[in-house]
């Protein structure tokens, strides 16, 4: 097996173990087979719990990316070295090194001490003494007589000595640099690194709302809505009349399910600064959630007029057109969001969501989900939704490893288990589908996908997904609970 096949095998085994289809001993025995030696003789293995690759460096196993594998998603740094969960590293053979006592000591050549040599040494010593005295007098006597004398001879001026240390750059300048770096990192989908920059900026400027606004935006797009709401509230506490802070609070409220509050907050932001494009764009989205499509269109168009190159303005217009059923125009607007911010994983993810749910184009959705994951491989919703898009595109067998990976990363998601059962069932593997349906119903007894899939499999039929009409409001970003 190559690296990709081993990874797929891991997620398959982990999924079976999670639902009780195989025992712990069977799981460990199969996982132990997922290792290999590369061309330079290094041993690689998959961790039994994390699914990450480790390489043997003699006395320990350390995380790494084996030849032929995609790099792992970015993670926060930890102080302790990582090690595989259940495997023990082979002992390193010891090589004897020569002791320091055994090494030969080089000898210095000796010079014959003669009369002329003594004269030269004495002269050099006297010269050194004169120089030391000269420097001492110049430093201790007011007016620096020696330096002044030679300065007058040469027509030059003596540079004044610094008497106070240079002042440190203002904290506001440091904060601005941190925010700018955070913005750059975030647009490159380096989310954890960006969050660290915003947090540092917020700490050194306790009255500036800007780092908290950016911090909230990054958290919201990653699905940490409760934390995003907290940071946005802190930003408005620092600057109650700041339109950008209120606009971000509006978004956090909306994605948290408080649409009416979001409308009020966004209207306040627009009143504070009628030229703030984000305030108009977020208000457009909020209006769509409360059924005011005409007002939403007006706000989206105003946002575009104010900021024609804003991805947020084009996103607002894309949602309006999507819900109006103007598929071609909506497609163009969604595409533009990815053109303006091509390296931000969230733009590709949301474009894929619109393609799959509203525009009836699962094949293109697969491509956009894959782009999102190439930029930010740890974004669980994209892994899960890629599996759904492959099912919709009649590629259920290809969906299985992605859905297995999704439930490994999010092991309490009932929907993930239900759709994995659907993928197995539609691949004519109902015997493997049933345990996943059962597990989904343990988490959520009312899960209709699992209920129907289980009934179909038990009756000998391939499970089918009931057609579902697209929502009449924009999709809310999936909420994730960060690990503690």
Radius of gyration: 33 Å
How much helical structure, as a percent, in the residues? 55-70%
SS-based class: mainly alpha
* Distinct helical segment count: 21
Main-sheet strand order equals: 1-2-3-4
Distance between the termini: 35 Å
- Number of separate strands: 4
Which ranges are low-confidence, i.e. pLDDT below 50, for 5 or more consecutive residues? 73-113, 137-166
Mean pLDDT: 83
Key traits:
484 residues; mainly alpha; 21 helices; 60% helix; 3% strand; flat
Structure description:
The chain has helices at 3-18, 24-31, 115-140, 145-154, 171-187, 191-204, 210-222, 225-238, 243-255, 259-272, 277-289, 293-306, 311-323, 327-340, 345-357, 362-375, 380-392, 396-409, 414-426, 430-443, 448-458, and strands at 35-37, 43-46, 53-56, 61-63. With 484 residues, the chain is mainly α. The protein has a domain at 1-90. Strands 1-2-3-4 form a 4-stranded antiparallel β-sheet. The chain is flat, with a radius of gyration of 33 Å.
Short précis:
The protein is built from 21 helices and four strands. It is an all-alpha fold and 484 residues long. The chain has a domain of 90 residues.
